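Lay summary. Proteins are chains of building blocks that fold into shapes, and those shapes determine what they do. In this project we predict the shape from the chain. Here is one chain we studied, written as its sequence of building blocks.
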Amino acid sequence: MEIWINPACSKCRGALRLLDEEGADYTVRRYLEDVPSAAEIRDVLHRLGLEPWDITRTGEAAAKELGVRGWDRDEASRERWIEALVAHPKLIQRPIITADDGTAVVGRSEEAVRDALSRS
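And here is the predicted shape, written in a compact code that computers can read:
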């Protein structure tokens, strides 16, 4: 199991605390420092069953500067969104937990983190 975190994020710290309380075996990835490649983002999106716009933090300053709220949300625009996430990793929703069964969750709630734990 791997968890993509921003240490400044309270949701990330909460997810880590829960994983530790449950004795989970996991690896931490500070995705702002160790930026995921486009291929890794595509893989995580597949595992999540989501599209890049589903995991984009549209309220971030970079999102506003890029104008992502006005971008098309279709297959033709998918790579544009992925490239924005690579170029501006702060736009990636957090925390993302990849489970051992090949799936992933956005662990913003205790229930989502427990869901990831049940899959590993």
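What the prediction tells us: The chain has a mean pLDDT of 96.
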